[in-house]
Input
Amino acid sequence: QVQLVESGGGLVQPGGSLRLSCAASGSLFSINDVGWYRQAPGKQRELVAAITRGGSTNYVDSVKGRFTISRDNAKNTVYLQMNSLKPEDTAVYYCKAEVVTFSVYWYWGQGTQVTVSS
Output
């Protein structure tokens, strides 16, 4: 059994920062590619940032220069550092990871709410 658990969401004022974590646990060997997604009310889920096992990253244009995705392979954990937050960043943030067990499967976390408001 594998679980992905996101944490670190909350309420923050515009211009503030949050750091999200996505931790994989259970019967796994490692995690490969990981993506952070977000879904705002009434909108489709969108990919915000992604990172390969080797550390290559990419970002949606709207967060470039403000968000940084990183990972600690020893802890099977991926982070999303979010700076200079804007009200339009408000959404539920999800991680999706390619998990290596005796096979390879994609898993989603349960999501963490990020609200940017004064």
